[in-house]
Specification:
Layout (H helix, E strand, L loop, with lengths): L6 E7 L6 E6 L2 E7 L4 H10 L1 H13 L11 E4 L2 E8 L6 E4 L4 E5 L6 H12 L1 H13 L7 E4 L6 E3 L5 E4 L7 H14 L7 H10 L3 H15 L6
Helix pairs in contact: 4-5, 5-6
Bound molecules: zinc ion.
Length: 229
């Protein structure tokens, strides 16, 4: 994002004082300005306060669930940024181009974007099942069933029957974070609690588990992009 590609949506208000900025979508800034404020003045004010304005856009991407899935927003897949674009397409609903890191959604299915994204990401999330089987085998855990669900309250869980459930949202996180969650749940197969022994085992399998936990606490919210029902 830079100042040249910024679109402005101007609203004049009767309130006096300084200009008021908020993010409308990925490249539009909503500006509330007192009556009679000139466009030049607004442009100047924005460039003077560019650090602040830029931060608004950053938090729009990072801190809040993606609003309305506007054209051009960033999403994450295995920790890497991908761009969402709407495009006129023949007979396909969506298409991911890895060279462009772009996920194209059919323009006329724009209203279905949420379910199409869920379809795309849950398909990709099948990888987590394979990864979980692999890590279980590598570290001698006996795992029963592996479920993938759109859970937003937790990243994973483990039942007494040895079933592991992973959140589909995990497919958006970097690989090290995915492994941390999977190993965490696998460790529960041996220790059904968060005891010292549990953490000692986890530490052995993921020496950086504290960093990974902190990453999720800090950035995890931004990955949960769908509205909760
Ligand atoms: Zn746990």
């Amino acid at each position: 994002m830079n100042i040249e590609e910024l679109k402005l949506e101007l609203k004049y208000t009767s309130r006096r004082g300084s200009l008021c900025y908020s993010v409308k979508d990925h490249n539009t800034l909503a500006v509330k300005a007192p009556h009679g404020t000139s466009m030049d003045y607004i442009r100047e004010d924005i460039s003077r306060n560019w650090d602040k304005v830029h931060k608004l856009f950053e938090s729009y991407y990072l801190d809040s669930p993606v609003r309305g899935f506007a054209d051009g927003i960033k999403l994450f897949l295995m920790g890497a940024e991908i761009i969402l674009r709407y495009k006129t397409m023949d007979s396909i609903a969506f298409h991911f181009n890895p060279d462009e890191n772009t996920l194209y959604i059919a323009k006329d299915l724009q209203n279905e974007v949420e379910s199409l994204l869920k379809c795309f990401f849950s398909h990709k999330a099948e990888y987590l099942r394979v990864r979980c089987r692999y890590l279980a085998m590598q570290h001698n855990f006996r795992v029963n069933r592996i479920n993938l669900r759109w859970v937003s309250s937790k990243w994973g869980s483990c039942s007494v029957k040895g079933n592991v459930t992973l959140s589909n949202y995990l497919i958006m996180a970097p690989k090290a974070i995915q492994d941390y969650i999977i190993l965490h749940e696998l460790c529960h197969l041996r220790h059904m609690n968060h005891s010292k022994d549990f953490y000692a085992l986890l530490q052995k399998l993921d020496a950086q588990y504290k960093e990974h936990r902190a990453w999720l606490k800090d950035k995890g919210r931004a990955l949960r992009i769908f509205h909760q029902k």
